[in-house]
Amino acid sequence: MGRLEGRTAIVTGGARGIGAAMARAYAEEGARVAIFDIDATRARATAEAIGAACRALGVDISSERAVDEAFASLEAEGIEADVLVNNAAVQREAALLDQTVADFRVVVDTNLLGTFLCTRAALRRMVPRGRGVVINLSSVLGLTGDALLPIYSATKHAILGLTRSTAVAYAEQGIRCVAICPGDVDTELNQQYFGAQPDPVAFRARVEREYPGRRIARPDEIARLAVVLATEDASFVNGSYVLADGGIMARLFDLY
User: Fold this and answer.
1) 176 forms bridges with which residues in the sheet?
2) pLDDT computed for residue 188 by the predictor
3) What global pTM score does this model have?
């Protein structure tokens, strides 16, 4: 029997990358999984590849109506929100002086407003049942900054505040809220970031050189951590974050 047998997990941004890896990992542990993604076609393909335990919904998580309708649709099918993973995110690569208000709004609306809307919808189902786990994807950029990702970094800092506030507000109702702060992960989003550099190959090699293990993370490494945080093995982990950064933040810079 899997560690999440009989439970349901909702994963936003589950069509690709870390989200797809999490959806697969939850299904392998016995959970029934629902993927939310704005790319409905890609989400359905991912769900089909995972198997019968996974289904997909095309959802724009920056839309209050779309989020509420998606949760209501699952509820009508008897699918409860036992675990919510707020993973969906976008980024715009540019220094702050070169960012636009449109850039700000799309990043904040997806990363932060989307996390708020999905968490609120999940809590409406979790609180009456007296149980639930919310896992928010922050980042090492929720703890530090990046010259070319100022808005993304701001949203990831804010997600940690939302995580703590949710945890302290609903712990007595049997609900935990935790965050994961990954370092660089080999996903399309990170490849997009590398691709925005003048020499993407050299830039990626430079980034990997900064990690003590000389590599960035695989999506499945973050997914396995998300499984543990959703189980009773992490029953007293609440209102905090887990740093999954390969040790990059354990030193100031590499002299060797």
Assistant:
1) 133
2) 87
3) 0.96
